[in-house]
Design brief:
Helix content is 42%, strand content 16%. The protein contains 9 helices and 9 strands. Strands 1-2-7-8-9 form a 5-stranded antiparallel sheet. A two-stranded parallel ribbon has the order 3-4. Strands 5-6 form a two-stranded parallel ribbon. Strand 1 (84-88) and strand 2 form a beta hairpin. With 326 residues, it is of the alpha/beta class. The longest helix has 67 residues, at 2-68.
């Protein structure tokens, strides 16, 4: 009887051990399955992300080809007029193009002789006013940022103080930047990209995001009225109100301006306004710089590439000035 009880107990123990081992193996198998599934999803995610990037690059090449071959005028004009979507294999790309000469060039706040360019400075100040007046506009953009921009691009070490600005008029030179952590020197040279402004005293990522669509570092400083936004057009003069700026935008949708003088034909364009803005505007910029933004999408995954390109007037070739993947 004792032997039977012992065998019975041993048999029960073995069953329990076997069950425990089965449960453990089940847990291990479930864990392996979960990891394998996660790895597969990760690989699929990476594959689709790369496909989306290739779609974005394809959109960039479409825009460059349209710029290179002006015989494709309709495609190029469509790209300039707004976002255009193209299907690429399993995904699609959305492409927008903006003319850089329709923006304010912050590299021309001083002229070539080193003197303050009051007309360009006033334009930037008015742009800041217009942005600050927008509903829920935060953070406020200080006038002092203009002085800091000037000190960043000029070639001297004298702190700029603009006498026509009452508050926050002083800029900053290396003596200010070398006290920061990490420290760095004031560039004292022209900006190569607008992103460099993030190093300038008074600039924050939030302010940069608010002004970036309206500024550039390319061109001679004249505003191309065929491509400038309504806000940039308003910044041309205190007398250009929102209604007149929108009228210019609406008029050029019918047909591009052939000359700046055509502005005189617009209702509300008084001669005093025209005389003020004609020297700072153009329809034939001295250089052609464009910003191309291409969003690639495959399923729910998106990738974006942004490029600045220049069409060489002599060779007619399109040259890449800046390229970045987001």
């Amino acid at each position: 009887m004792k032997a039977r009880r012992i065998n019975s107990k041993q048999g029960g123990f073995v069953i329990i051990v076997v069950l425990c081992m089965v449960m453990l193996l089940s847990v291990l198998l479930l864990g392996f399955h979960h990891k394998a599934r996660a790895d597969l999803l990760s690989v699929d995610h990476f594959r689709k992300s790369e496909q989306a990037l290739h779609c974005a690059r394809a959109g960039l090449q479409i825009a460059i080809a349209a710029l290179q071959d002006r015989q494709a005028d309709k495609l190029w004009l469509d790209l300039l007029s707004g976002e255009n979507t193209f299907h690429v294999d399993e995904g699609k790309c959305s492409v927008t193009v903006s003319e850089e000469t329709g923006k304010l060039n912050v590299n021309v706040l001083k002229d070539k002789s080193g003197k303050l360019d009051r007309a360009n400075i006033d334009q930037v100040l008015r742009l800041f006013d217009l942005l600050n007046q927008q509903k829920n506009a935060q953070p406020k953009i200080s006038y002092g940022l203009v002085s800091s921009m000037i000190d960043w691009i000029d070639r001297d070490d004298q702190v700029t103080s603009l006498p026509f600005i009452r508050f926050g008029a002083k800029g900053a030179e290396s003596s200010y930047y070398k006290k920061l952590k990490p420290s760095y020197a004031c560039k004292n040279d022209l900006l190569e990209t607008t992103e460099e402004l993030l190093l300038v005293k008074g600039m924050t990522p939030e302010i940069y995001d608010r002004i970036n669509d309206y500024i550039t570092v390319y061109g001679d400083g004249k505003i191309n009225i065929n491509f400038a936004s309504a806000l940039v057009l308003q910044s041309l003069s205190e007398e250009v109100d929102a209604g007149l700026a929108q009228l210019i935008v609406d008029r050029r949708k019918l047909a591009p301006f052939g000359s700046v003088a055509e502005l005189r034909e617009l209702p509300g364009m008084r001669d005093s306004i025209y005389q003020t803005i004609r020297r700072t505007t153009t329809v034939k910029p001295g250089s052609e710089h464009y910003q191309i933004t291409s969003h690639g999408c495959v399923d729910e995954l998106d990738r974006t590439v942004v490029a600045i390109v220049h069409k060489n007037a002599a060779t007619k070739n399109v040259e890449m000035v800046l390229y970045k993947e987001l």
